[in-house]
Every structure is written in C-alpha cells, then in structure tokens.
UniProtKB/TrEMBL annotation:
Residues 23-33 have a biased composition (Low complexity). It comes from the Bacteria. Residues 55-189 form the Nudix hydrolase domain. Residues 1-37 are annotated as: Disordered. Its cofactor is Mg(2+). Pfam families: NUDIX. This is Nudix hydrolase domain-containing protein. It comes from Cellulomonas algicola. Coiled coil: none annotated. CDD domains: NUDIX_Hydrolase. One of its GO terms (molecular function) is hydrolase activity. The keyword Protease does not apply.
Amino acid sequence: MTDAGPGATAVPRAPGNGTGGAPVPSSPVVPSDVPHHRTAGDGWVECACGRRHWGRFGAAGLLLARRDASGVPVAVVLQHRAPWSDQGGTWGLPGGALAPDEDAVTGALREAAEEAGIDPSDVRPTGTSVLRHPDWSYTTVLADEIHPAEPTATDAESVEVRWVPVDEVADLPLLAAFGDAWPDLRRRLGAGPDTADALPGGAPTA
Ligand SMILES: [Zn+2]
C-alpha cells in the first residue's frame, strides 16, 4: 500500500546500484547501461486475436511461491516492470520469450534467473497453466521455493523484483493478463498440484 500507483513510472533509483543515477528513460527504448538478455525468440507476434504479443515461440513466466510450515502459500515473487517495457510500471511475473525449441519450464527458469537472480536449484516446478491464443501462448510455471531465494532485479526489464504477500498481490497495478489469471493461479497455489496438467513428480492426484 506504500507502493507507487500506476501513474508513477519514474521510480527513484537506490543509491549505489552502479548505474550512476541515470534518469529513467520515458521512451520505449532499452537502456544501454544495464544488462539486457536477448534470445532468438524475441519479437512480436501479430495474433489473430487482434493484439500483438511478445515472444515469437510463445512466452513463459515463473510464479514462485513461498509457503509457511503448514504449506500455505504466503508470498510470491513479482516483477515491477520497467517503464519502457510493454505495460511498463505494472507488476507481473519474471519471464519472457521462449527460445526456439525451448520448453516452457526451462524458459521460465532461464528468464527468472536472468531477470530476477533466482537460482533454478532453489525452485521446484509443480505445474503449469497455459493461456492459448490463436498464434501464441503464455505458460505460467508454478513453482515452490525449496531453498531460501532472494530475488532481485538483475537486468533492464525490472525496476524491482521482490516477494509480495499473497494477500497484497491484487492491490498492486498488475499486468492485465496476470491480473486476469491471478484468481485462478492463487487458487491453484493454495490447492496444490490438483489439476490435470500438474507436472510429473508432483504430488499424486488420485
Ligand atoms: Zn492473441
């Protein structure tokens, strides 16, 4: 509730983060003074739904949950998107375009490592949720924290990456698609891997 509102895109930089206090660009140009990863899947898809989406081979993101001792999810990792990015200033999942022939789990973990400094060995994927469009798809990879993970913004795509209490997620200005998906994703986190597309190795469902 102390976070900047949706109109506040000029987030002050923390001192001493190595960027020298450069102004936050207001134009949709990737800053050149911060790391930015590229894959062969980077690019827009003109979708038959009438919109365009990022990721020539689809996209994926990581929904990483921290649970309390009784297994109840208490926080998830969210990314505060850089002002220059699509729907800049909103909060969503660390993730991005899949590389050619890259499966969604691999891609989501790769992007989470690149953007949020999340070590894949600290994470256990538990399931996926796929949003299908005519010419594109987005896979949310649900995962549990198995070793303490301290995410941080590690490239140009994030203003901030942090644990957000589950009960506070809906109060943030969310990326539209993530906001639409959040009620179902939250239910799935709470219910555990109870659906048909739970990953092999998850808890038995029958
Ligand atoms: Zn579409």
